[in-house]
């Protein structure tokens, strides 16, 4: 009971200015008279709604043009062009081996470097004669030439093993001879001007990403330098899509280009921010799967997404609710040794009675132990250890469940931002979620926004997740503000929630408890089952007395009534968890 009353004081003082609704600025003037707290809240709500609408429009345009089957196939086209060069131009005409192996678009020995320019690689090569930089000058005409001259060269050659076709018609077993030759191909510099400054790098073989240029040069690792034109990436539209890419950047666009061109796992790196994305083969779907799924395949996929969303909400919301309850209840324990230290240093103006009034669930037990001449260090240390242990477990959960719940390519730090969002609404629920209307509606909206974001996250191999999460943040912020202004302020004015009845709904327990005791943590997960009653309620609706009422009535007299966290009841103020079950 005292725990909830202490939180109610914060709630009540926070709503004072909204209830009074007086002009913020003193003095006369039409503008000053109209500039009130409720006006400011209304303006902020409109700004949030406008920003949400524009962000959703931006997300829709970006996703429909750059993600999945709708993405332009710029990188795929350039890699196909390089593959054609390998087949048709990189073997000398007089070479005895006329059999050309099938080159993949990208092999595990390749390091793909991408940059964004005004023209693509194919256009650059058509506009000007591009010189191929080889290990010793020209393309070797025989397999006996050595690439020893490559030590000081900036090109990165590729070694291929070819089988000489000098066997007879009956095969080499009929007396023909088969020799294995090693042919060296040049690395293509798409710009044709020497050094290539890449914006992004990708490889199917993650260790290649961490090798030095000298090492890759000595071990014949081919570097494919590809330039993608802005015109291709924006689908010949330099206005609308160009503005979208200018606002959101090229990271998400390029990752989807790699998904489309290379249907395999690998590591992708932005050279500007040094941020890396890694994924396995199951997160690089074939283009046909992005275009159409079968009926049963689509149903199973959607059910899988819903299970993932429900799992993410359950674990993130429940663990965050417990940590928020712990931080508010036990985190303030640091004030007691701090006050004691300040008093020992000579600050006599401090009174420990202030802590007793501010934090009665800790202050009253400390006062009782001091009156009984018992040491209080054990109680304070116990709460401090509780904070350290539970918060360490919470941090460990963030790391462990990030690997489980968010095991796919995603922006750096996104999972921590999701935890931050949930912690914000849990803190809000603990302090401000008190009226009946807010308890009914707010958890539903927060759950809806959380679920919509995660449906987009799990249903898309890689989308504009940062923008989608920003929309989720803004929508949740609007829901919290609207709940405070339109539900909590009227409820406070009509005394639906008061100091004696801090919440409109609570969890009632069938046994008495001390009025200064903390509510059990497990009550966070119980459905809300009771409301405060006053003398104006219909007495005919009350239940008949049952055995045990005498003890409950005595407990209610000691704790000030059957409201939240009091004698016969317990607070259930975690709006994202407990109240969501209403």
Q: Order of SSEs, N→C?
A: HHHHHEHEEEHEHHHEEHHHHHHHHHEHE
Overall average pLDDT = 75
Radius of gyration: 34 Å
* Ends distance: 22 Å
Q: Poorly predicted ranges (pLDDT <50, ≥5 residues)?
A: 128-194, 543-582
| Main β-sheet description | 5 strands, mixed
> What portion of the residues fall into strands of 2 or more residues?
5-15%
* DSSP strand tally: 9
Structural class: alpha+beta
Summarize the amount of helix as a percent range: 40-55%
**Total of helices:** 20
Large-scale geometry:
elongated
- Spatially, the strands of the biggest sheet line up as 5-1-4-6-7
Oligomer: single chain
Describe the structure.
- The protein is built from 20 helices and nine strands.
- It has 582 residues and is an alpha+beta fold.
- Strands 5-1-4-6-7 form a five-stranded mixed β-sheet.
- The longest helix is centred in the middle third of the chain and has 35 residues.
- The two termini are 22 Å apart.
- The C terminus is likely disordered.
Structure characteristics:
single chain, 582 residues, alpha+beta, five-stranded mixed sheet, two-stranded antiparallel ribbon, 20 helices, 9 strands, 8% strand, elongated
């Amino acid at each position: 009971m005292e725990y909830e009353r202490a939180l109610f004081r914060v709630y009540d003082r926070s709503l004072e200015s909204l209830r009074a609704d007086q002009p913020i600025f003193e003095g006369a003037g039409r503008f000053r008279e109209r500039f009130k707290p409720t006006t400011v809240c209304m303006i902020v709500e409109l700004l949030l709604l406008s920003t949400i609408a524009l962000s959703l429009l931006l997300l829709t345009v970006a996703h429909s043009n750059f993600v999945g089957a709708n993405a332009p196939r710029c990188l795929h086209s350039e890699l196909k062009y390089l593959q054609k060069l390998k087949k048709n131009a990189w073997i000398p005409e007089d070479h005895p081996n006329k059999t050309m192996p099938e080159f993949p678009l990208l092999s595990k020995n390749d390091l793909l470097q991408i940059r964004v320019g005004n023209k693509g690689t194919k256009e650059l090569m058509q506009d000007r004669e591009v010189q191929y930089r080889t290990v010793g000058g020209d393309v070797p005409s025989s397999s006996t030439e050595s690439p020893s001259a490559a030590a000081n060269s900036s090109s990165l050659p590729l070694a291929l093993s070819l089988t000489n076709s000098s066997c007879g018609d009956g095969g080499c077993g009929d007396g023909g001879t088969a020799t294995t030759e090693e042919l060296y191909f040049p690395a293509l510099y798409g710009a044709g001007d020497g050094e290539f400054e890449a914006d992004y790098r990708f490889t199917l073989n993650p260790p290649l990403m961490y090798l030095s240029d000298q090492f890759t040069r000595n071990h014949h690792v081919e570097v494919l330098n590809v330039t993608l034109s802005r015109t291709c990436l924006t689908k010949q539209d330099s206005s609308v899509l160009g503005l979208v890419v200018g606002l959101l950047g090229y990271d998400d666009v390029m990752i989807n280009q790699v998904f489309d061109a290379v249907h395999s796992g690998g590591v992708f790196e932005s050279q500007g921010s040094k941020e890396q994305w890694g994924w396995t083969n199951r997160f690089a779907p074939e283009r046909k799967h992005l275009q159409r799924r079968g009926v049963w395949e689509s149903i199973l996929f959607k059910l899988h997404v819903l299970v993932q969303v429900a799992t993410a909400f359950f674990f993130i919301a429940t663990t965050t609710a417990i940590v928020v309850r712990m931080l508010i209840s036990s985190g303030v324990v640091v004030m007691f040794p701090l006050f004691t230290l300040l008093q020992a240093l000579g600050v006599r103006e401090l009174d420990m009675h202030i802590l007793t009034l501010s934090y009665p669930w800790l202050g009253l037990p400390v006062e009782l132990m001091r009156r009984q001449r018992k040491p209080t260090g054990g109680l304070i240390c116990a709460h401090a250890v509780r904070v350290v242990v539970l918060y360490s477990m919470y941090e460990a959960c963030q790391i462990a469940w990030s690997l489980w719940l968010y095991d796919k390519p995603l922006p750096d730090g996104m999972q921590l931002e999701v935890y931050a969002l949930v912690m914000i609404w849990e803190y809000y629920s603990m302090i401000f979620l008190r009226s009946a209307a807010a308890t009914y509606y707010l958890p539903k909206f927060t759950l809806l926004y959380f679920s919509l974001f995660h449906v987009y996250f799990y249903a898309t191999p890689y989308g504009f997740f940062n923008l989608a999460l920003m929309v989720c943040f803004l929508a949740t912020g609007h829901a919290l503000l609207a709940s405070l202004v339109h539900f909590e302020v009227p409820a406070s004015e009509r005394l639906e929630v008061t100091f004696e009845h801090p919440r409109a709904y609570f969890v009632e327990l069938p046994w008495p408890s001390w009025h200064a005791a903390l509510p059990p943590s497990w009550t966070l997960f119980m459905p809300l089952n009771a409301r405060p009653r006053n003398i104006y309620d219909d007495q005919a609706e009350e239940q008949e007395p049952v055995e045990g009422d005498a003890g409950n009535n005595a407990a209610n007299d000691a704790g000030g009534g059957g409201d939240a966290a009091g004698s016969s009841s317990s607070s259930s103020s975690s709006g994202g968890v407990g109240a969501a079950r209403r």
